[in-house]
Amino acid sequence: MLIKTVRGKTPQYGSDCFIADNATLIGDVVMGNGCSVWFSAVVRGDVNSITVGNNVNIQDGSVIHGTYEKSATIIGNHVSIGHNAIVHGCRIEDFVLIGMGAIVMDDCVVEPYSIIAAGAVVPKNTHIKRGSVYAGVPAKCIKSVSPELMEGEIERIAKSYSMYASWFKKD
Phi, psi (5° rounding) for residue 31? Predict the structure, then answer.
């Protein structure tokens, strides 16, 4: 793993985290407990702060960044950020699933129990209400999250990544 201090800020992460060998954490990054940052993911807090809650998985190839002097990135608890997603200068609240290759732009707010579908592009300043599924380019609300999706996808994936991370942790 590459952990790099920038502008006097060194990334911090809590207990029981898995950071892959080639993941990168830079600058003003504060991450909670039980998180995982997977292979080739970049969490780059050089131009603004990045705050990540507990039990968050940032999957392979994802990029987490912000906008200089404008938009920090805040990620809640039990969030799954799919492979090759980009989360940029926005607020992702608890129990959110961001699909593979999705892009969430500056100043967006994604409320709890929402899903951003794979490949979706959420434009700047979009406010996604609790329990919504957004898909497309640009992303639009296509339906509400059912109780089955809450348990079967959002919660299941977050729990699964905790298990997967345990396979890589050193004793």
Answer: -125, 140
CA angle 88, 90, 92 (to 5 degrees): 115
Beta bridge pairs of residue 5: none
Strand 140-144 relative to strand 132-135: parallel, antiparallel, unpaired? antiparallel
- AA letter at 118: A
Host H or E run for residue 128: strand 127-128
pLDDT tens, residue by residue, 82-103: 999 999 999 999 999 999 999 9
> Residues with Cβ < 8 Å from 27, sequence gap 6 or more?
4, 5, 6, 7, 9, 10, 11, 44, 45, 46
